[in-house]
Each structure stands twice: as structure tokens, then as C-alpha cells.
Amino acid sequence: MAMPRYYMACLDLTGRSVLVVGGGPVALEKVEGLLAAGADVTVVAPEVVPELADLDLMLDRRTYRTADLAGRFLVVAATSTRAVNQRVFADAEARQLLCNVVDVPDLCSFILPAVHRHEPIAIAISTGGASPALAQYLRDQIAAVVRPEHAELAHRLRALRPWAKAHFATYEERKAYFAGVVAKELGA
User: Is the domain of 24 the same as that of 105?
Assistant: First the structure.
């Protein structure tokens, strides 16, 4: 069976409703990432690790119900029960919701890459679900290259975008301009 070819994207989750089904350490890890991205997170699980209860989220201590998907942007299933994970995925698919079942690529409409963040810079790497350990290793190797001056340059380049749009008529001209600035600043 051929591995899926994923379309890589960065999602703006600010204020968007995300459901996490599960309350263990894996769910905690996913919740922390979602909250860091500004998502409005609801966790549904009969039992949760204490750290989850301390976070800024909605917590429903009970089993998952299909109705929990109403109004959600995406859902993450992080339970240790395959039947629950399969049900969450099937329910999400029926509603055309993005769904990630942690560590089960066959039950995912999206997968989560290994991510390193340094201010506005985010480095994400994926093995297409083949090996999270390899993705994390590669992320750490690449992240070691990112320095504070890269983040500072990213801030300056963001500030230049309106000026460039006003002074260069085409996308190609803006692209060449910014490539030149990056090459000059980083000695590339």
C-alpha cells in the first residue's frame, strides 16, 4: 500500500474550537500544542491526568459522544481504546472534519509533524506517519541551525512586506527582492 502524500500547511487555530478525546499524557501533549496555537480546546475523557485540569480549557469528564463534534474545526483522538478512536474518526469523516488519531496514521485526515518554534519561525518535519522518532530526531538536528538573528530577521521581513507590495508590482519581483535581502543579511 502506498503511503499518502500529505499537503503541508500551517493552520491558524486562534479562537477555533478543537476537541481532544482522551485525557492521558499523550492528550496533554497535544492539548499543550493546540493551546499554544490559540485554539479553544475542549477535552472529553472520563479520567484525566492532573496537569490537564490546570490548563485553560473546557473539560468534560465523561465518555465521548458523537454530538461532541458539533461546531468543531478539528478533532484529535488520543485514547488507548481502538474502538473509541475508530468511532471518533468515523464520526469526523461523516462530518468532513479534520481528524488526527494519535499514532494511527490510517485513522487520520491530517497528521502532526515534529515542530520546533523560535518566535515567528516554526520548523516542522514529517515522515508521513512512518516514524515520529525519526521526525523528532531530524527536527532537533535542523532546529540547532536556527539562531536568534533568524527570528530578528523574520520580524524585519514581516515589517517590509507592506512596503514591498506597494513598490513591486508582481509576486516574482517581491520574491526576488526578499531572496536578495535574506542572502545579503545571512551571507548566503
Answer: yes
